[in-house]
Queue: 4 jobs
Job 1
Amino acid sequence: MPHIILASASTIRRQLLENAGVTVDALPARVDEDTIRAALQAEGAKHRDIADTLAEMKARKLAERHPSSLVIGSDQVLKLDGEIWGKPETPDAARSQLQRLRGRTHRLVSAVVLYDQAKPIWRHVEEASLTMRSFSDGFLDDYVARNWDDIRHSVGAYQLEREGARLFAAVDGNHFTILGLPLLPLLNYLSQRGFIPA
């Protein structure tokens, strides 16, 4: 079986793979996501293409340093009113994002790209639709204060797998896609290619 690298510092993505029985080394790719996202938006790129490009840039960076490894790159963007959102930089930014999402439906787009021998061999993009309930400003303030250390790593400033579930009225889409990694298509491809036991 090949050595597999997850090009991410995301704890949840690593846990999803390890819980599925896939052993990975998780290494941060350290690409300038904000600059790449802004450049793609300026060119009028679609949200699916932005997520896909960010995932590929992460995979490519580590694949160039580890050409004999299988490298998984993944990324997620949030879309609302035609805007593409990144991770909040401050608690105030998180609060502002959640105020804009409150009572509305937004989309999460998650992409995964696989590199082998330092070349892209497979990619997949999925979307999910999420509707937030109308919570109070007091609840919002307490939520951000309690969860800032975790939500600052997430687009939209929430984590559905934790207390963030309380923010939502409805979710339509694959749970793994919402968590930032289209896991089932990835596992199926890895199995079909013999990269993991089938």
Job 2
Amino acid sequence: MITINRTTKETQIELNLAINSEKPKANIETGLPFLNHMLDQLASHGGWDLSINMQADLDVDDHHGIEDVAICLGQALYKAWKAQTNKRYGQRLLPMDESLTMVAVDLCGRPYSVINLPFSMERLGGINTEMWEHFFYTFAINAQINLHINNQYFKNNHHLIEGAFKGLAYALKEALMPAETITTTKGVL
């Protein structure tokens, strides 16, 4: 189990993560029910035990809390993938009703993020939709992974973001599978 604690003037977060769980359990309380729902999808479909307790200045807006959860989750994932030899690459083309989203990851230590989630609403579930791209970018940078999320088409904004989280879960699940050899010609990532 990896534990990350983060305390700033804006947030206080305690996060615990265990990957490759046989019976994934999520206990998530961020004060943002829709964020809780998305993180629960990530943990459940990714096969993780994940607990997050966040106190944030949500009376200001959603930015600080979402950003800091992404920082903590990224830092925890980095520690998890560095602790074992992984298959490294993972991808998922995920249908969610009328929405279709491609997610690809590389656990490489060279962080980069390309996100295409063309929301048609400014807010969804009480959260500014611009925060989702920021969440994935911040997560990728702190996890030191290469992350691409590209929505092919959608009509329902809920399906758009939920498909992205589920696609990420399955792509990471594949990439985090133990490998018997180093997956680079350099000899080390």
Job 3
Amino acid sequence: MPTVKFKPTTPSRRNMTAPSFEEVTRKSPEKKLIVIKKKNSGRNSYGKITVRHRGGGNKIKYRLIDFKRQDASANTVLGIEYDPNRSAYIALLENGEGKRSYIVAPVGLKDGDVVYSAPDADIKPGNTLPISNIPVGTMIHNIELYPGKGAQLVRSAGVFAQLIAKENGQAQVRLPSGEVRIIRLDCKATIGQVGNIEHDTVKLGKAGKKRHMGIRPTVRGSVMNAVDHPHGGGEGKSPIGHPGPVTPWGKPALGYKTRNTKARTNKFIIKRRNAK
């Protein structure tokens, strides 16, 4: 997916790039597969802000994606669509009975292609199989952690995992972060790499685009008052006054590991990401 560059007619246009949407073949979503997405502006069920710098943004509707892929019949690709809820594109499928569903579109999937979700399906992009039936070395995405729960791993634009080993009823999968993780062989995964590969090369160009996404400005703690942030206060440009940077609530930031050392799933991680 090449990006489109703009002429520098304004300061914001000078560095702006946008996706060309060459892969997108369908403009409007399937009405039966969209639901209203209510905004919470970073607030939890008690109304407390748990994610800062959120609010505003364009109204969007959520597309119901089939991450379980339980339909074993032949599904024909009707079109590739843009999804405002994720970085990847989505594909609209239709089976022989006329039932339609969305999946995350992998690289190379085109209108008219037929995909399957069955143990004996071919090893080609878009087909979903149990990991036990996928050859070692295959690129995969949409990986389940628990059989039947639906895909939870490797769903963003341009990413893929690699199946590197199978033994003792378990598989070793190298994730995009570099982490090597054990996954059960009866979990499903989809063949191929997620589409929209050049998503990370897009330059927004102006602050307004972030506001359209519902992300509000982030202010440095060092320019706040002391009452608002541990880094704040002082005359002029003052040092932060701590051995290292901290969060607004005084917890260590930048490099401080927050994962629970007694987490139940630690035993499934063979190699940590960024491990030396």
Job 4
Amino acid sequence: MPHIFDASRKDLLEDPERWKGTSISTMLRKAGLRRGKNMVDMGCGTGFFSLPASEIVGFRGLVCSIDLQLKMLGFLKSKLKTSAGVNVEPVLSSILDAPLHTASVDLVLLVDTLHEVERKNALLKEAWRILKPKGRIAVVDWKKARMDIGPPWEERLSLDEVLHLLAQAGFGKPSAFQAGHYHYGVTAVKPDSSSPQG
């Protein structure tokens, strides 16, 4: 059964070894993030991706960082105190019921989050709701392989499983991108005018 990452182990989230073979900024750009865009980092943890994302979107954009754990957001807020000009808004909330307007976001980012959520279809449906037409969802998650780093093998999702879930939710135009040695990345697009599946 999926589990929520323990906030007391936050140092693992900050370990650069997890992202060996790539750079966070490069990954975010491959996911479709651009200057002036609004992004939601769902299950943001310590904000490891939120801060680099803020540098990309600039002062005309916004990064909304959502997490269910108050401790995680506390770590992010501590970072923000020493990061001038960062356009990041921490939000304490379930990612299944985000306090955001419908069709208000350009990019939804799920990093090492989808495999942790039991109601995966509900999460993708919520991502669909908050995305603008032609908005993108980007999923970065652990490769379905046995390794000494990351979650247990049985909790991981293969790329094919994620592609199937995205298609079920109504997303189209999937495109995979390189996300380091241990992860895969894939983006998909919310069609201009249609309804979510399921």
